[in-house]
Structure formats: C-alpha cells, structure tokens
Amino acid sequence: MNYRGQDHKAMFTLATKNKTNSAVRYLAAIYLLTADKKLWSISKKAVSTNGVDFSKITSAGLNPEAYTLLMTAKDFYTDTGNLSAADLVNKEIVSAKVFAVICTAMSICRYGLNFYEGKNVT
Asked: Is residue 82 over pLDDT 80?
C-alpha cells in the first residue's frame, strides 16, 4: 500500500486496528486523514467506530496539502463535491505525492483493503 511515509503507515494502522467499521468509504477517509500528522491530530477526535463527523474537524491552520487531503476525505466519505477532478490533476494544487495517496484512497473506496492484501476482489 502507498503511504506518505512510516508515520502515515503507523497512524493508519493504529487508527484502524480495533475499529469494527470496515466500510470502504470510512477506511479511505481514515487513510487520507492519517496522511498528515497535523491533520490527523485535529481529526482523530471526530473519528469513532460509527464513522467520521466532519463537522468536528476545522481546517484552520492546515497547509494546502493537508487541506486537500481533508476535503478529499470528506468528499469520499460524504459524497460531496469539494474538489473536482480538474483540481486533483492540477500539479499546482496537488503534489505528486498527495496525488498518489488520493489514488490509493480511491482504490480503497472501490476495492477495500483486500486489494492491498492480495485477496480476491470483484
């Protein structure tokens, strides 16, 4: 699985370790929210086994990459349209590293974590 670094992998693994919610949109949102330390520190209070309450997450003080990750997580989870496909492919808005993380989150939304565990997906 594509992580931004060891910190991202550790935060995602810990955040999903004892969660019973295995809905793909939930997992993709957690994956995106854990991709940035500051974003995760302000987001984890809004995450429970029942879901993610985005109304409890403030974007104040986030850098542009963290803001993009937050809005993408919200879009995937709540089916909103904060970011367009044009935004996501714009190199000035989304770095290559963040784009790769978003693509991984899309795969999680579509196939779940089984895709990365080498299990059969349909």
From this structure: yes
